[in-house]
Amino acid sequence: METVCVPFQKKYTLCLSSQVGCAMKCSFCFTGTQGLTRSLEKKEIILQYLQAYAYIKEKFQGHQAAPNIVFMGQGEPLHNIDNVADAIEILKTKEGMGLGPRQITLSTAGYLPGIKRFSELGSVNFALSFHSPFNEERNELIPLNKAYPIDKLIDELKTIKLMKRQFLTFEYLIIRDLNHTKKHVEEIGRLLKGMPVIFNLIPFNEFPGAPYRRPEMAAVEEFKKGLIELGFHAMVRTTKGDDILAACGQLTSQDS
Ligand code: SF4
Question: How confident is the model over 227-238, as pLDDT tens digits?
């Protein structure tokens, strides 16, 4: 089980795991190469938060605000929704950590049965690993897409009730020579027309044996420009932690 502390401005965000390994086998993901060992219990999810928060307080003396959470560590959180929902509920209570729902983001590869239950998590932020608007490409990147194709996911996402100024985040891994052409921008415009989406663009982090390559930053900026011209918000995520295999899609259970 691995947890990552990500510094952002003067605050920390904790990237929590929901499972040991993952069953989804996304082709770009180091975690996906190890398969699913087991789902975490709610107490194990909460313990990751408490231990990481204690570490931050000890290492960086003085007051440290309660960190935000992203469920983007090992595992597909909606594939373990009962334990994740219980852990979130406890972390939100005054007796727990008193976190607000907007301090918590849950990221899914597109597990539709879990998305249908998303409202049970109570207004937390939603993020989708999107990566391509085309089913053929998405099938290769996220095999789960064969069971739950992108148009069905988008239909379901349109039913999620958002709070004022709340957006759906679409994570978009940018892979060299694969998924960031003009054709992709046009199809995204057609598919997501009118939806309140923020794109989080992530240049692919290469790992040992990775089947893909990191893109040129100029190509990433060009893709971002195309999305903004369509009226979407888009930002490029600064990679932190890729030197220790702790960046997005790189977590795996290694002996240390
Ligand atoms: S990207 Fe997420 S859902 Fe896909 S294999 Fe990795 S941990 Fe699982």
Answer: 999 999 999 987
